[in-house]
Amino acid sequence: MIRHCVEESNVDGDMSVVDPTKIRHVTVAGGRIALLSGLIDPASHLNLDLPDHRATICIIAERFAVGAEVKMDSDGLVFATVPRSLYGHYGHLDYTQRLVDMIKAVDTNQEKRKQASKQERAATRSRKKASIERENKK
Length: 138
Known about the structure:
Blueprint: E1 2-7, E2 24-29, E3 32-39, H1 42-45, E4 57-61, E5 72-73, E6 76-77, E7 79-81, H2 95-137
């Protein structure tokens, strides 16, 4: 499951997030960060004019790194809250369109990586073939 997450250093003694612009999306497996994204977009996550996807609670990680431990107690994940005073009015935005654009960008990046990998494999095969041909000429 994807969660909003903050670093432990960004949580005060009252379990409140200090700087919500430093929240990230993460996935957790086995009490550790398995995947880590970039920082949230305040216009979608801290926007009083957009109630559908606010970052209201966050799990707490020791640091932002794959493999970093997340805080847990006997009940499960430990959460910090984002104080209402840290939200702002950013106006309306088309969250659905932003999501569609993000998915397209991810797909494009994955396709570029596939093409680069395919080209690298072809170049490696070509180098191996040339090396074998040189050895056979000796």
